[in-house]
Amino acid sequence: MRATVASLLRGIDRYNPENLATLERYVQLQAQENTYDIEANLAVLKLYQFNPNFYQTDIAALILLKALTNLPHTDFILCKCLIDSNRLNEMPISRILELAEDLETCNFQRFWEELRDIEMIGAVTGFEDSIRKFVCHVVAATFQTIELEKLQELLGSITDNQAQQWANKYGWTLNNEGVVFVTNQEENIKTKNITEKITFESVAAIMASSR
Amino acid sequence: MSGMWANSEIEADYDPYAYYGGSEYETHTGDPRQDLEYERQYQSSYIVPEVIKNFLLFTQKCINEQNLFEVQNCYENGFNKLTDRFFKNSPWPEAEVIAPIVGNDQVFLILYKELYYRHVYARVQNGPSLEQRFESYYNYCNLFNYILNADGPVPLELPNQWLWDIIDEFIYQFQSFTMYRSKLGKKSEDEIEFLRTNPKIWNVHSVLNVLHSLVEKSNINRQLEVYANGGECFFVCLFFLFFFSFTHCSHNLINICFWHIFLQQNLYSRVPTCQMTTFYYVGFAYLMMRRYQDAIRTFSNILLYIQRTKQMFQSRTQLYDQITKNNDKMYTLLAICLVLHPMRIDESVHSQLREKYADKMLRMQKSDLQEFETCFSFACPKFLSPVPPNYDALADSFPKEPFKLQLRVFLEEVQQQIQIPTIRSYLKLYTTLPISKLAAFMDEVSLLYQDGWSHHKMKNLVWTKGTSGLEGEFQSASEVDFYIDGDMIHIADTKVARRYGDFFIRQIHKFDEITRTLQQATY
Q1: What are the GO MF terms of this UniProt record (chain B) (predicted)?
Q2: d(Cα A68, Cα A73) in Å, to the nearest integer?
């Protein structure tokens, strides 16, 4: 499927509205099978932009949710830019935008609360786990140690067991006092002096021309 | 059309030829359009002076002989000089008048018309009429058909600057038409009817088609690989910048891996406007994608280049104005980037920035959203709506809608990170800092967030994320980095030594370029 779609997106065919049906099916497929193809999704949104009559809220919403699963990359902004602003105010798109804002500002507690109200989530396989992956990314970048309770909360009130699994996955260790040791940040983050390095590529051109 | 009627009636009253009576008077047919046409023709054939004739013939000869140097001279100097002398605010003679002079040379006529309409767009008062917009479009179609439908390479070589200008103008006219189309309020019913019945003109798909075909035709990818400095190189960047200005598909733009090659290699290319536009769009794309470090690098590179080469263009007024305008826009964007992501940049660019934009930056640092909005509106490219407006609803169909959307996305983004500079400034003062203490500081600054914890995490995230994501790699390049251990924030300061390498590399390149120019000149 991916290859077929890729061939549809080449050249001017990208703007052919006749392909829309295939591409929409592909979006749904991505949601069911937990795969992701930003190129195809952006093409769908672009086609909606060119042919406003074909616009389908459900598909657009799915694309936005899929973009959220790819945080911390900025796919969501790209998608947002392709949707008309009055459509951004419609349900359920507006709700998804709120979710995105919570995630971007790391307001995870609120995110999990609001998530409960959105029914569409069920349609996106592995949505919650993708988000948890993102949360772990943030935690790993920020904390040296974090209380287990806090971690559970951030990951959407998961059980001890699940928390243990996530911790294992990232190689975090849990000590007896209920504190998770994330990573030794002292190693990575320290005062440093950066001195200049010149790569060979940047001087290659000069050397070639002055031969 | 009613307006036209009125006009020609008034003209008829004062018609100077009326006094001569006879045949000339009778050629007024009563059809205002024909009359107007006639008058235009009459006037222009009347005033085609020898100088112009000679100029056209000479240009034609140079083009046919493929004498690039002379063609460039005609294009850059001759045409502009004659424009200033004869056609400051009025159009050049119509192509029909020129045709007999140049012996109906079709290719030359197409090129001439291209210049003719470009001049109409730029200089003639009241701008182009609807007909002129349409005719100009057809002329472009002819030109592109000529280039694209040939089997082999077309035996037509033009100076790079001209090639670039053709594409640039093509896109400009498309933008202009889109804007014009969306302003329905001031149009008469006839005009609207005309637009409605001609949906194919300046249609998004055909425009895109042309650009796609040009890219295919010019074999950009291969050319860039071997770094052929062929004129057609420019098509590629234009193509992408077009895409971008159109609907903000920055993803496509950046996703192209070879643009890097393009930017590095072509830094000293011979078409300054092309280069500037490319950097401008690439930088803007980075800005919107939140890759500030890349954006800053892009902007400061080109700004430095402009700063050092600006004098060279002082003699070419039009070009100089364009460069100055672009320059201001890019400084503004750079200011935005640096507020959101402070880092060290080249000294001379920095001092310029301090000189001109210190106030703006200060206001932005103080979280003045209004200032962000002003700067963004000033510096952003034009955004277009790809679909024609609803011709039945007579009100203006929000020509600004696409722009507003981009502005909204941008401001929401800014809002999310507006607090970061403040926090950063606090953190810079410490090596370790309890969270409770920072919370106390912050609450003075804003009571926006009730939950101290989530508040701080917000900063952390955007901070780690706000930094560069070059090739999918997240690196924190900010001057301050930190981590949280229990209740304590540990802060690490980064000191960056001054960079000399870039400076010397650039100087060597520049020197090389000068030597080459000198050699060419002596030759």
Answers
A1: translation initiation factor activity
A2: 9
- Tens digits of per-residue pLDDT, A105-141? 777 777 888 877 777 777 777 888 888 888 787 777 6
List chain B domain ranges.
Answer: 44-245, 253-385+396-429, 430-522
Q: Which residue from A minimizes the CA distance to B411?
A: A77
Task: Scan residues 40-69 of A and list those with Cβ closer than 8 Å to B.
Answer: 42, 46, 49-52
Rounded to two decimals, the ipTM of the complex is 0.73
Q: What is the DSSP string of B463-477?
A: HHHHS--GGG-----
For residues B325 and B333, the answer to whether their CB atoms sit within 8 Å is no
Architecture of domain A1-125: Alpha Horseshoe (1.25)
With CB atoms and an 8 Å threshold, state whether B216 touches A138: no
**Distance of residue B455 Cα from the nearest chain A Cα, in angstroms:** 7
Per-domain boundaries in chain A: 1-125, 143-191
> Can you say whether residue A149 is alpha, beta or left, with left for phi > 0 and alpha for psi between -120 and 50 degrees?
alpha
What global pTM score does this model have?
A: 0.68
Instruction: Using alpha carbons only, give the angle B471, B472, B476 rounded to the nearest 5 degrees.
Output: 100
Residue bearing tokens 């070879």: B258
Between CA B297 and CA B499 the distance in angstroms is 13
Interface test with B, best of A13, A53, A74 (most B CBs within 10 A): A74
